[in-house]
Amino acid sequence: MSAGTYALCVRVPGSSFLDPCVWDDPIPTVSIKSGGKSKNTKIDLKEGVLFQFQVADSEKKVASLGKGAGVVLDATVELPNGRYVRMPLVKSDTAGHTMEILVPADRDLPLLVDGQGLLFLNEDGQPWARDRAAYVIQKSVQGEKAKTTKIQVKGR
Questions:
Q1: What residues pair up with 112 in beta bridges, in sequence order?
Q2: What is the pTM of this model?
Q3: What is the rounded end-to-end Cα distance, in angstroms, of the chain?
């Protein structure tokens, strides 16, 4: 292995463990000397909570998983260090769109949702924001494995 400092990223697909390269600050690293090896390197993995953001889209204003015409809906989680993590769109169907991300359970996180030309409505159907909405993902209660927030979108 070449000498240098390497980030220690761990992604465990299908698990509830958070990738430290996304959620930790500073990012865990290990330094290797020329021709050297790293032994007994420890990485502390933390469990997260699955956060789903469901968007009801009866007017079909949002593009479905990047296919067809429509407004692109973009959701990002803002980290305390100023970095942003994009929330991927995982499902689009006739009921709407679902975005989800595994988030740390131990802190509140701001969620920013952008959709140029959209009116965001809360779960009760009341106007919430235009073009951009802000929401706080509340830290979880002990043992909580998932949480969901639902909104609606309409054209302006």
A1: 76, 134
A2: 0.83
A3: 56
Look at residue 70 in the predicted model and tell me its pLDDT: 81
Q: How confident is the model at residue 44 (pLDDT cuts 50, 70, 90)?
A: confident
Do β-strands 29-32 and 4-7 pair in parallel, antiparallel, or remain unpaired? Answer: antiparallel
Rounded to the nearest 5 degrees, what angle is found at the Cα of 54, between the Cα atoms of 51 and 58? 175
Q: What is the DSSP string of 4-60?
A: EEEE-----TTSSBPPHHHH-SSPPEEEE-TT----S------BEEEEEEEEE-TT-
pLDDT digits (tens, 9 = 90+) for 60-92: 888 877 676 788 889 999 988 888 999 998 999
> Could you give the C-alpha distances from 105 to 15, 38, 48, 148, in angstroms and in order?
14, 30, 5, 14
Percentage of residues of the chain with pLDDT beyond 90: 44
Q: Rounded distance, CA 98 to CA 54, Å?
A: 5
Mean pLDDT of the chain: 88
Q: Report which of 1, 40, 48 is spatially closest to residue 20, judged by C-alpha positions.
A: 48
CA atoms within 13 A on the CB side of 122: 6
21 phi/psi in degrees, rounded to 5: -75, -15
Q: How far apart are CA 32 and CA 4, in angstroms?
A: 5
